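Residues pack. Consider this:
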Amino acid sequence: MALSRVPGEDELYVGGIFTLRRKSTLASTGITHVVSVLKYDFKDFEDWEKYGHLNVEVDDVDDENLLGEFERTGSWIEKALKEGKDGKKGKVLIHW
């Protein structure tokens, strides 16, 4: 899955894990923050410190409790979009 913008006023995007490997796409889109919805060790990704990051560690199973993560994740995304980075509004990628 490539990077897709969610319709609306905010700069909110969705994509798969391989979107993170497309550095030129992240840069040209201006992504400032990343929400990762999976159990994964991201220490091997280069330039990871460039982005604000929230890792929602869940398994890809039918009975995973995603609702328990909504409030924390939603608040984090709202803050990232509002506060952004370097004086500009944030652009958030949510991937799984």
About this structure: The chain has a mean pLDDT of 90. Residues 4-88 form a domain with the Protein-Tyrosine Phosphatase; Chain A fold (CATH 3.90.190.10). The first strand starts at residue 4 and ends at 5.
